[in-house]
Design brief:
29 helices, EAL domain-containing protein, Rev_trsase/Diguanyl_cyclase, Biofilm_reg_signaling, GAF-like_dom_sf
Length: 974
């Protein structure tokens, strides 16, 4: 280390501090008038010392001559008369020494030898003492240097600001050397610029600006810049250094100094800065010792600066990370709050739906609805207002208020409640808004004046039937637009629940009255039966009952399947014996019977079956057989007919009789049926075969649109053969390239700007040409081949996406795919192999696919969404369309079914508008957009826009084509 080398040099130099004390000590042992000169030299450090008693230069020169002979080992005086006392030797530590003494008279030889031996011991003792003192001082300096370096390291790791840290480092350096004037500069050799981190000078008034970058062009005649480019330490008067480096004098760079010392700081053999000290009034203040010290300290200062910068960078990164975590935490908290709000809303809606069924009375229903609303927002002051039956009065079936304890029924006036009913829109009004409405004469407040009032209408169909209201009397509580949207959404379900509850109460009343009548009639019948039963024996009654149960349907009393097959066997036997006799079997199935069971219950369904059996019996002859086969299936055996026209005439009468409306469970129902006819043919061997063909004809009628009949003939047999052939063609087409994707554009309704396409499946059949899906989808679904066809379509769409472009492409995904656990992974692998952008792909699914297996569907949709593939709900409004499942799935868009879009113009406009408005409200609440399907004219497009729908698809904007349309977006300027 540099300070160790310096220690030896200091030791020899300090040994020279003996001065004349050593020579004086030797002279005291000689006669008066003697002169003594002593010289020594340490060859390891290259330094020498000298001590004399004021002897002549010749005496000193002689000592130097002896010392230059490399310390001869013997006493060999050159001139014994002139220099009787002289010798030179090498000490044990390697130091060369020489002594020369002159006396008036030469001494005896023994005296001379004795004195020289004594002189050697004295010189050795003095030098040893001096060296020990020098080593002690050197050790003390080393300790001070080490302590200074410790202090510099501590300062670098402290929390001090950069300026304070450098000021304290300056104080540490000043404790080691003269450093009143010191500055530290950093150098960027790439940008060729410097920054003065610290500057302390008693004459130069420059103030350091650590963040200011100074270009080298601004320091053309700076000794500091020359030092940085020179790359080696420089020491001496500043004018000599400028002369050495070829730098011109420039008074702008400070005054000249008597002594100037600058050492560069290096990092990986590159100069990155310098430390400079200078003295203006004392020359030769700095030497090799100071240069070595400052060089050593400079590297520690650089280390300290690096640690300081690293700490600042770490603190900056920690701060950035902390801010990022805070932002992420804030977003997470917002998401949690939103999810909690959605869960509370969903629970509230479920609760309202449940209350409409479980509440014992309407009063109890209103109280529980109030509790539900209170869980969602501030509802201490809450009331429900309903229009009377004649719409002339306003009734308050439920009211809780801090100030208006009672609200009596009143005639319609100009209150805030009537304002909401008249406009059919929610009203959120604070004190100022209420005052403004009063000033305009539009409302007239009643009761205590609210600070904030929120009321939303209750609808039944398209008409407003009441208002649900919350209000606040305190300035500290105000309602927001979010509260308005929430209450509006809840009010919609309250309207449904209220209507259901009122209908249920009316039904309960009617049922109670009916039960009373039934009970009365039952008592009368019981009395009559008692008289009848008295005349009939118990055994006969039991036998008749068992026989009837074996051959008749328990619900309708009609013959059952067993009795029908028995009569069919008899009819077949008669027809085989007499070729002129023929018969027919009519097989019918009630349309949408399951809907009746699911909506109003199985008891109501049983009522409908009984009524249907009665009507069918009323259309046949007395000798014809009407049987119930099970469920909603009936069969009619008509014998002794002239031909098919008789069977068709009967089918017409049956369908007409069934189509008449009837009341079931308090509701008016319009039943219908699908009917199949099978005529007797000699190929039939039993009644089961006849029923089978009649059943097949019935399904043909149901597929043709229901409420009609179909006759089983050879065409149906040919249809079966055709289906087999179509299935074979389908298998061959899968192995070829018969299936292609057609693309129909999806646009913004406002400016018709293209946003994407829907990929539609088409089949180029070899003989039949281009086939639409409805011509082969049934065969594909029944045979299980449609899944392979779908994957062919998906592959074509992914290849189209891989070719680039703008906008997304949506594909239809059947429920079959959602039953496969690897559908999402397989689709994502296909996208990845093709190099397509998954964010441009959408999948269109139906409500059935979601509800078939909810957990699996939810996992699949989340997996696809995490990779950018979003989901759209197709044909929305034709299935369940309920919040009970929709809010749970990550749906990006609702596609409004084309049946509702078509109904926006024409006789069904009110119903279609109501449905579309409800769908828009639902989509708005869930934060998703909608697409209207089947837009074919401008009237439909305009109606959809007015209802809030943003996007559309249909023949108005383009027919499906084999190529993706590319057209620029149109901007609406109006």
């Amino acid at each position: 280390m540099p300070h160790r080398v310096r220690q030896s040099a200091i030791t020899i130099s300090e040994a020279a501090g003996l001065g004349d004390s050593l020579a004086d000590a030797l002279r005291e042992s000689l006669p008066a008038g003697a002169q003594v000169a002593v010289r020594w030299r340490d060859p390891r450090a290259g330094t020498a010392g000298f001590s004399s008693t004021g002897a002549a230069s010749a005496l000193a020169a002689r000592a130097g001559q002896l010392l230059g002979q490399h310390a001869p080992s013997a006493h060999a005086p050159a001139d014994e008369a002139a220099y009787p006392f002289e010798t030179a030797w090498t000490a044990a530590d390697g130091t060369h020494c020489a002594i020369v003494a002159r006396v008036a008279e030469p001494p005896p030889v023994p005296v001379r030898h004795a004195w020289l031996a004594l002189a050697q011991r004295l010189v050795a003792a003095h030098l040893a003492a001096a060296f020990a003192q020098a080593r002690a001082e050197s050790l003390e300096k080393s300790e001070r240097l080490q302590q200074a370096l410790y202090e510099i390291a501590d300062l670098a790791g402290s929390d001090l600001e950069l300026a304070d840290m450098l000021r304290r480092i300056h104080g540490v350096v000043a404790g080691l050397m003269y450093a009143e004037n010191l500055y530290i500069v950093l150098y960027d050799d790439v940008r060729d610029s410097v920054r003065f981190l610290y500057f302390a000078d008693r004459l130069d008034t420059y103030i350091a600006e650590p963040e200011r970058e100074i270009r080298a062009s601004e320091l053309a005649n700076s000794v500091t810049l020359a030092l940085l480019r020179h790359g080696e330490p420089l020491q001496g008067p500043s004018d000599l250094i400028r002369e050495r480096l070829g730098v011109m004098r420039d008074i702008n760079h400070g005054p000249d100094s008597e002594d100037w010392l600058g050492v560069p700081m290096r990092r990986d053999d590159r100069v990155c800065g310098a430390v400079v000290v200078q003295s203006y009034d004392r020359p030769e203040v700095y030497g090799e010792e100071e240069r070595a010290l400052l060089s050593f300290v400079a590297q520690h200062i650089l280390t300290a600066l690096d640690r300081f910068r690293a700490r600042e960078e770490l603190e900056r990164r920690v701060e950035e990370r902390t801010q990022a975590l805070q932002l992420s935490n804030r977003d997470l908290q917002a998401e949690i709050i939103e999810r909690q709000r959605s869960e509370r809303l969903q629970r509230a809606l479920f609760r309202i739906a449940e209350l409409s069924i479980t509440s014992e009375t309407l009063e109890r229903f209103y109280t529980q609805v109030h509790d539900v609303v209170s869980d969602l927002l501030y509802a201490r002051n809450f009331y429900i207002a309903l229009l009377s039956e004649d719409s002339e009065r306003l009734e308050f079936p439920y009211s809780i208020d801090e100030r208006d304890a009672h609200r009596d029924s009143r005639k319609l006036a100009f209150g805030l409640t009537e304002y909401v009913i008249a406009h059919g829109q929610p009203l959120l009004a604070d004190r100022n808004r209420i005052a403004m409405l009063e000033a305009e004469g539009r409302v007239r407040s009643r009761g205590a004046r609210a600070h904030c009032w929120l009321g939303v209408p209750l609808f039944r169909g398209d008409g407003v039937v009441g208002v649900i209201t919350v209000q606040s009397y305190s300035p500290a509580i105000n309602f927001s637009r979010r509260d308005q949207e929430l209450l509006t959404f809840v009010a919609h379900h309250i309207s449904i629940g209220l209507a259901r509850k009122q209908s249920q109460d009316r039904l309960v009343g009617a049922h109670a009255e009916l039960e009373q009548r039934v009970a009365s009639r039952t008592r009368e019948l019981a009395q009559a039966n008692a008289e009848l039963l008295a005349q009939i024996g118990e055994r006969l009654r039991a036998e008749q009952q068992l026989t009837h149960q074996a051959l008749h349907d328990a619900l309708t009393g009609l013959p059952n399947r067993g009795q029908l097959l028995e009569r069919l066997a008899n009819a077949i036997g008669r027809a085989q014996r007499d070729s002129h006799r023929t018969f027919a079997v009519l097989f019918l199935d009630l349309d949408r019977f399951k809907l009746v069971n699911d909506s109003v219950g199985h008891s109501a369904g049983d009522e409908l079956l009984v009524e249907a059996g009665r009507r069918i019996v009323s259309t046949v002859r007395s000798n014809d057989t009407v049987a119930r086969l099970g469920g909603d299936e009936f069969a009619i055996l008509v014998e002794d007919i002239d031909g098919l026209h008789d069977a068709e005439e009967l089918a017409h009468r049956v369908l007409r009789a069934l189509s008449e409306p009837c009341w079931v469970a308090g509701r008016e129902v319009f039943p219908s049926a699908s009917l199949g006819i099978a005529m007797w043919h000699s190929r039939y061997r039993n009644g089961v075969e006849v029923l089978r063909d009649a059943d097949a004809a019935m399904y043909r009628a149901k597929a043709a649109g229901r409420d009609r009949w179909a006759v089983f003939d050879e065409a149906m047999r040919e249809e079966a053969v055709r289906i087999l052939d179509l299935e074979a063609d389908l298998r061959r087409a899968i192995n070829g390239d018969g299936f292609v994707a057609f693309y129909q554009p999806i646009v913004r309704l406002g400016d018709r700007g293209l946003i994407g396409h829907e990929a539609l499946l088409r089949w180029h059949h070899d003989q039949r040409g281009l086939l639409l899906p409805n011509e082969f989808i049934g065969v594909g679904a029944d045979s299980g081949l449609i899944e392979e066809v779908d994957w062919l379509l998906y592959a074509q769409v992914v290849e189209e996406l891989a070719r680039g472009g703008e906008g997304y492409i949506s594909v239809n995904v059947s429920p079959r795919h959602f039953r496969s656990s690897d559908f999402a992974d397989r689709l994502l692998r296909m996208i990845d192999r093709a190099g397509a952008d998954p964010h441009r792909l959408r999948i269109e699914i139906t409500e059935v696919a979601l509800l078939d297996d909810v957990p699996r569907a939810l996992r699949m949709l989340r997996t696809l969404r995490s990779h950018g593939v979003l989901a759209q709900l197709d044909d929305f409004g034709t299935g369940f369309s309920a919040l009970s499942y929709l809010h749970r799935f990550p749906i990006e868009c609702l596609k409004i079914d084309q049946s509702f879009v078509a109904g926006l113009v024409g006789e069904t406009q009110p119903e279609s508008v109501a449905v579309v408005r409800a769908i828009q409200a639902l989509a708005g609440t869930l934060g998703i957009h909608t697409i209207g399907e089947g837009v074919e004219n401008e009237a439909q497009r305009t109606a959809l826009r007015e209802l809030g729908c943003t996007y559309g698809q249909g023949y108005l904007f383009g027919h499906p084509a084999e190529r993706v349309q590319v057209r620029p977006l149109q901007v609406v300027t109006r």
